[in-house]
Write a structure and sequence with these properties.
By secondary structure, this protein is mainly alpha-helical. The chain has ten helices and three strands; from the N terminus they run βααβαααβααααα.
Length: 313
């Protein structure tokens, strides 16, 4: 039977967010607005940090990288969603699907690793302030970012390579708005045991270990904060870490909701709603979270536009 004939797989059909038809213009306008805000906001963060000498520090170096990655992350998913909604053609080629899955995984892993690096940076700054410039020297910062890029792309490539070997069943309909791993896995007719073991191993390496790094770093930070005698000092330290904690909670909360479950128990509706949060909402909110409560960032943005020398609000 042709049900297992992979040669017939020319296109996949992305059915997520395709119904009901009367809501398509609303979704298009909403996602387009979120996409433009995401790209503009994150690029402004990168430009402000790059153009302001006061922000050439490890913390803002990592933030500029995070903003650039969030821009690329959004560009990997949202333009295809907008084209599908506008044209009402929800197809994507087999190759295009694998390419989208690869960049989605690589950039999501990069976000994951960078959030852990940023937590470590805050730990050193708050708990080991006298050694901060020595530990977080420019060479080490570059090494941490380069290692994050390399590991993320290697892990994403290994899963994409395994997925490219699969045969797919007669139905090529993906109940999602982009080529995510779990929906594709449910369509595979091939033996997926090796893939699932690899994916679980990578989930531990790229999920549990960075999250543990974040939790341990903030456990030390909280312990240090509680020993600060003045309320003003505590508030200053909390305000420094609050933005990062907000982003970490949004990012890990939605990822755990989707990916830390078996493929057999995967819920398309739950996965799609959580995916909207971490592919569109979180990248859009990050510039606001990091800039609105940060006097240095607000000052850099003002200077970028030539509106004033600094922000004192």
């Amino acid at each position: 039977m042709g049900i297992r004939n992979r040669t017939s797989v020319a296109d996949f059909l992305l059915l997520g967010l395709s119904e009901p038809p009367e809501q398509q213009p609303l979704l298009f306008g909403l996602f387009l607005g979120m996409y433009l805000v995401t790209v503009l906001g994150n690029l402004l963060i990168v430009l402000a940090i790059g153009s302001d000498q006061h922000l050439h520090t490890p913390m803002y170096f990592f933030l500029a990288n995070l903003s650039f990655i969030d821009t690329c992350f959004s560009c990997t998913i949202v333009p295809k969603v907008l084209v599908n909604i506008h044209t009402q053609r929800h197809t994507i080629s087999h190759t295009g699907c694998l390419v989208q899955m690869y960049f989605f995984m690589a950039l999501a892993l990069l976000d994951d690793f960078l959030l852990a690096v940023m937590a470590y940076d805050r730990y050193v700054a708050i708990c080991l302030p006298l050694h901060y410039t020595t530990i977080m020297c420019p060479q080490r910062c570059l090494l941490l970012v380069a290692a994050s890029w390399l590991c993320a792309h290697l892990l994403a490539f290994s899963l994409t390579l395994l997925m490219s070997q699969f045969s797919f069943c007669a139905s090529h309909s993906i109940p999602h708005f982009f080529c995510d791993v779990l929906p594709l896995l449910k369509l595979a007719c091939s033996d997926t045991h090796i893939f699932q073991v690899t994916m679980l191993t990578e989930a531990v390496l790229s999920g549990i270990i960075p999250l543990t790094c974040v939790l341990v770093s903030y456990a030390h930070i909280i312990y240090t904060i509680l020993r600060v005698p003045s309320a003003g000092g505590k508030h200053k330290v909390f305000s420094t870490c609050g933005s990062h904690l907000s982003v970490v909670t949004l990012f890990y909360g939605t990822l755990f909701l989707v990916y830390f479950q078996s493929p057999s128990s995967y819920s398309a509706d739950t996965g799609m709603m959580a995916s909207v949060v971490y592919t569109m909402v979180t990248p859009m909110l990050n510039p606001f979270i990091y800039s609105l409560r940060n006097r240095d960032m607000k000052g850099a943005l003002w200077r970028l536009f030539g509106w004033g020398r600094s922000s004192t609000q």
